[in-house]
Write a structure and sequence with these properties.
With 172 residues, the chain is α+β, with helices and mostly antiparallel strands. It has five helices and six strands; from the N terminus they run βββαβββαααα.
């Protein structure tokens, strides 16, 4: 087995502007930008085994998260399984955005929730940087918004991917 990790050339900026007859098109997500990536192979296998596909449509270039200091590419990623689908907003890394590199399957799978996020208190315990009583109002609001979005994504995943092996997504 070849274990070299040869980096592929980044996509051009024209990738963002892909159109057919003047309408923006959704492009299939690449496996990975690195050849021989074991995680990408696992992602490809999971998608094939479960009959899942993903496409991405460039949405905008700007700040996606409250903590962003730099602009990034923001994509609309659609996950399909059979006749069902859901769409999430995906913020590409700042570095990849600067190089015009679209998200890959592994990037998206790593960002999807792996289990029910539980209550807001559970979420704060997991993702908060301090004890809840030491938190500023702004930090609490930011965590609450993150929890709501994670709950929304989890409900979508349960609806669309209910008969898929979601437990095996833990590796991402």
């Amino acid at each position: 087995m070849n274990t070299t990790h040869e980096t592929l050339e980044p996509f051009s900026r024209e990738y963002h502007d892909a159109t057919v007859h003047g309408r923006a098109i959704a492009l299939p997500l690449a496996d990975s930008m690195t050849e021989g990536d074991d995680l990408a192979e696992m992602a490809r296998e999971w998608m094939a085994t479960n009959g899942v596909s993903m496409t991405a449509r460039f949405d905008s270039h700007g700040r996606m998260f409250d903590c962003d200091k730099d602009d990034r590419d923001i994509w609309r990623v659609t996950v399909r399984h059979g006749r069902r689908s859901f769409t999430i907003r995906f913020g590409q890394s700042i570095v990849d955005s600067g190089n015009g590199i679209p998200p890959c399957i592994t990037d998206v799978l790593c960002c999807l929730p792996k289990c029910d996020p539980g209550t807001l208190a559970d979420y704060i315990d997991t993702y908060g940087s301090c004890e809840p009583d030491e938190m500023t109002v702004a930090e609490h609001r930011q965590l609450q918004a993150g929890w709501r979005e994670t709950c929304r994504q989890w409900r979508q995943m349960e609806r669309v991917l209910a008969d898929c092996d979601l437990d095996s997504l833990e590796v991402f």
